[in-house]
Write a structure and sequence with these properties.
alpha+beta; Jelly Rolls; eight-stranded antiparallel β-sheet; 25 strands; 24% strand; elongated
Amino acid sequence: MKLGVSLVVSTMLLAGWAASPRSAEAALTSSEKGQIRDFVSTARAENAARVRSLIARTDLTAEESLAALSESVAPVPFTDQRAIFLRELTFGVSSASSRPLLAHAVTRALLARADAVFQKYVGGLDHEPRAISELVAIYAFLDGTIANAGRPTLAAHDASSGVSAAAYEDCSKELRDHVEHNARWLKGDAPVAESVGRVRAQAQAALLDMLPDGLTRRVDAADRLGLKGARRQILTDWGILLQDAGKLDDAKAGRVREALARLPGARVDLELIYAGDDRGPLRTRGLVAFAGGGTAEANPFGEELTPSAVDTSVATIVQDLAVLAAKRALDNRGELRVQAERDAALAQKEPGRMLGRPRAPSVDHVIGAAVHLLVLDAPRTIDLAFVRALGGHPESAALLSDALGALSAFATAPPSSGGGGAGPTLELGKGNGATTASAIRLAPNGAVVAFTLEGHSWAIDRTAPAYSVTGITREGQVLSLAHLATARTPMRDASSWSEGGLSFTKLRGTPRAGIAPAAEKGGAPTVKLQGSGAKGYDAIMTAAPGDDFVLEGDLAVRGAPGGLAFRAANGRDAVRGVLLVVTPGGRAALVTTDDQGNESTLGTPVDPAPGMPVHVKVTVKGTKIDALIGTATLSGTLPAALAKGEVGLIAKRGANVDVAAFSLKKK
């Protein structure tokens, strides 16, 4: 009976010993530790198996194995040759049975080396480029070789690599402790030197990739990395790290997140966005997008719209992401790429036809620049493209159609190329907020030909086979400047300009002019003139309703002398008539001019001239003229030679003359 009990107890003890984690019977001798140090120091790949046979012995505890390798790796620089040696040590032919231990040992050893580098340069790491390069290389090795052994997917490790989930848990804990130990450099998003930003980015990417697979992986990573606010949300929502040297505060990071939400194509397979000027290599399981750096325009919409400004530090990042989204879409939609290439080539023939500011001439950058504007402010982008179409240049409208098509390639609802479907929807930007484009309809080549935005339905007529833009409508009505809330009056060189019932013709010089319809139904239009002649006044005129009349409106003169003309005609060398001339920074005066351009002042000038814009009301009756300018009045008597003539605007070279709410009536 006692013998039977003894046998059972002995069997249980043996089973427990076999199941326990590597119970030790011996320890490495000083000679064996010396061999490991020598082999690691020389880093010859053929000696990796000998080191493996020493540290992966079953008679050692795991801690003894880990310590033996760390003690040998920590004192020596991490070089390309040493990387080959450690890769062979972990994944060599005979390493399969001990690979979980080896992966853990190499991870701890390299982190010990990184600790040594941080300790050595604790006061001036940012001024040590060799140390920076070594740290980046260490974390990149841990990411590429250990965390992404074999052929992992974006969401999971490769189970056939031989590195177990338990080993990855151990390795990730080593990285977590290392980040905590060097939190000043590696944790969170606090400002660091630009040269250290990439070190932190690579270390955080390595920790993210090293974590065991599971539903909580992204949240665990955010916790261990100390990420908060928008950066944490970007990681937990999409598995993307937003990294820089700490220049982006949470508000700016939030704007980057908003842009990412509008650019689903940019998020495909993306793991790391690095925003900064240092674009050295970074290694992750997914894709790396280098964004930002350089400069951006504070007003990317230009002078054709009312003023608007953006945060340039965020805009540079968003534009790079927009280019990435455009490239993905065009790679997936071959016919759209062909169309976009054709439209980009046409837009590049003349200045001022691009939609946005491409950083390179490639179609990816051209369409990316248009996508960038849509992400920033879609209503303004539409106004910019369509105001150019009104001026006879439809190239920007074609790029708008292509850019919307590129964004639709990754829309949540399936695209509709014909009637019957509601079409996809797109979240787009609108200043500091957002707006939605819906009921999107695509042409067969993938360009957008119809959409609804903020209650208005737009259609872009694109005629096959070239799919050039032949017309634009809103609610079925032909495009008008009144449809474009932020557009300024388009200026063009011409011999005549018309809008509604108002028409002007060129009287003299080389004027650039335009007429904007009233913003409200029943209102008065705005007339604009830009002087570009080298001598005298450029002038545009409209017929007076009679010999006696009243002109009223809000006058603005900027840049150079300009104003209004009455009872005017084209003289031999100049505009002949009576002029109301405003000199910016000077005076406002009524003058008469003859065929040679000689001027004679009527009455006493207003000096200084009122601030612009100023309401004016000019009454001409018989030989009398009275001009109310703000609160001042100018009066005079006209010579008999000026009994008849036209009414219009005048501008010297460099002047911009606007008359808003232009009204001309018979007296």
